[in-house]
Amino acid sequence: MSGPASKAAAFDFLERNANAVGTLSDSLFYFGELGMQEHESAALMASLLEEEGFTVERGLSGFPTGFCATYGAGTPVVAVHTEYDANPNNSQASGVAEKRCIVDNAPGHCEGHNCNAAVMISGAIAVKRVMAANGIAGTLKVFGAPGEEQLISRPYYVRDGHFADVDAALHVHISGEFDTCYGLTHFAAVSAYFTFHGETSHASVTPWKARDALDAVVLMDVGMAQFREHMETDLRAHRVITHGGDQPNTIPARATVWWTFRGPTAEGARKLFEQGRRIAEGAAMMTNTTVEIEVMSAVWPVRTNQGLAEVIQRNIELAGLPAWSTDEETFARDLQKAAAVPVGGLAKKLTPLSGPTRQRSPSNDCGDVSWVVPMGRVGFPANVPGIPFHHWSAGAALATSIAHKGTLAGAKALAGSLLDLLAVPADLTRAKETFRTEIGDVKYRPLLPPDQKPPVALNRELMEQYRPAMRAHYVKARPRFV
Q: pTM of the full predicted structure?
């Protein structure tokens, strides 16, 4: 392992700066920015890293809210990456065990990406301080990844070569437990807009003159519904109509439906998307319309590496679970009861490492990273166990002492793991050896179209609508690491 003194120094730095870690997490919570519009969040994180001596490249791969911060030089090159976007219509007051908006109907964090980012930034700063003080060689990269909830940015980063020189990468993500894992953890996905174009006419006077784009959307829905009987049981397809017309008496000349197709393998998700494409073309044929298909995101399944899981696990054990107070336990139980999930309070013990883990059906855009470089995940206990993501209850603890303590513990585990990878060649060697065994003869090729551009306007109107009211709740203090 890396020297105990180095880890002790990193842990001491984080304890000393616990207030800054919490302030950063809370700042991002109250920004509550949707994917591709995380301007306040990205600016704060990038500036903190720049002030610490990192060289920051903003606008990575054409994402205005993406960045890569680099410190050090030479090998090994270790990276950490995470997301910081919120969700629409999930504004939730923190510290109350009932549904209560901060701003009615506004976006908000209901998964904990604010804590993810605070772990990444504070852990990276701690490692940089130790590298500088102890002359630890190597390069540390910090990737800010916008739009995870829409599965967007990291496939672009991989496609554009930003991970080409990375030896190992760590992802951090909030949990109710303090754990890590190895094996396939998430599904692959292709997410695309299907926009049908027809011709408008008066729905009552001359409907025969129209070519109804909304009819095409409905028929695509019917076609997908019929196809579900023939889908393999582990495939998923779901959609939302984003534009269905303007008024009932005007037959729509344009209508758009947004579909996401998921599967346990990249090829499975791709084939399901291609079937969706054929069904859309059939719907267009039946309605005398045309269809335009825009792939917004396309991600491989997430695979976490055994060698890195072993490194992370021992640093989780070194950091240890937070000591929860009676009030924190009471709040957690009240929240679990309100969310109708098993009532057991906060995490009481560390989860031992076992695996391979069971693959689940959600997706994360870090999947592409995990097929080109060994990748591990630090799961840290900054939320209440059992609470479902994307539900009001998942936002209720995110700016409380529960989140602050769990985030601090996660930053320690991240910092310790990064220091091991920088200073212990055997750890990196094992990660690479297990990685080669895990991926076998699978050849990575991006699902993302080679000429695809980032959807930079996504969620812009929604954030512009709510940001003025949300701004009144911003944290006024700025995080300061000493």
A: 0.95
